[in-house]
Amino acid sequence: MLPTEVSTTAEYTVRDQQRMSRAVNYFAWQARLAIAPLGRRIVEVGCGIGNFTRLLAARELVIGIDIEPACIAEHQARFGSQPNIQSRVLDAMHPGFLALKDAQPDSVVCLNVLEHIEDDLGTLRAFASILPPGGRAVLIVPAFMALYGPIDRHLGHYRRYTLSSFRETAEKAGFSPLTLRYMNTIGFFGWWVNAKILKRQEQSEGQIDLFDKYLVPLMDKLESLIPPPFGQSVFAVLEKK
């Protein structure tokens, strides 16, 4: 029901991320899941304008990278005065990404970004290449190709995942899954309606507000008690072998 991703094209990226900042409860839900497994020295892949980075401001080091100069410009404007937070225009598949290993990161976080990258296996291998054994990668990715529709195409998604397909890719990349679960059960149905019946290319602010105010608090509580058998997204915590 609520989009978990934003477009990686320059035309939409900043606008969509600013629009998604309306989803306060939904963002907080994802953030609580993602922050807990992270260490002290973090590489944030697809940092955008820094909506998640700001929650990591007390960590020892945060290196935010994104392929969009407009996003990094905004990221730099927000965090340039904080010496522990760096902003770089960088692609995870670029050879320069490997140099981030010199910063001795213990964690990589990549929220709603991997689906935008054609070579997801190569990207996960790049994550593993900068981490020490036991280092962690924390990701959220969209679930189920059956939900793929106009919104996904608009956002530039190559794919959606199941638990098994994501596990297979992660293990090939040199990771062992510590946590692998679906999240956002109600969103599964909302996304399907938008994709298959309404054929929408993007969500309205009204949908986002309704979902965020009334449904997210309920799902947050229920899914913390009972892991759902399906959902709109996959949440993963991976450990480098």
Structure report:
The chain is α/β, with parallel strands linked by helices and 241 residues long. The protein has one domain (13-240): Rossmann fold. The chain contains eight helices and seven strands. It has helices at 13-20, 24-35, 69-79, 120-130, 150-155, 163-172, 185-197, 205-225, and strands at 41-45, 61-66, 85-89, 107-111, 136-142, 175-183, 233-240. Helix 2 (24-35) packs parallel to helix 8. The longest helix has 21 residues, at 205-225. It is globular. Mean pLDDT is 91; it is low at 1-12.
Assign an overall shape.
globular
Specify Rg, calculated over alpha carbons.
17 Å
Unreliable stretches covering 5 or more consecutive residues:
1-12
User: For this structure, what is the CATH homologous superfamily?
Assistant: Vaccinia Virus protein VP39
* E-strand count: 7
Q: Summarize the helix and strand pattern as letters.
A: HHEEHEEHEHHEHHE
Neighbour order of strands in the largest sheet: 3-2-1-4-5-7-6
**Largest sheet geometry:** 7 strands, mixed
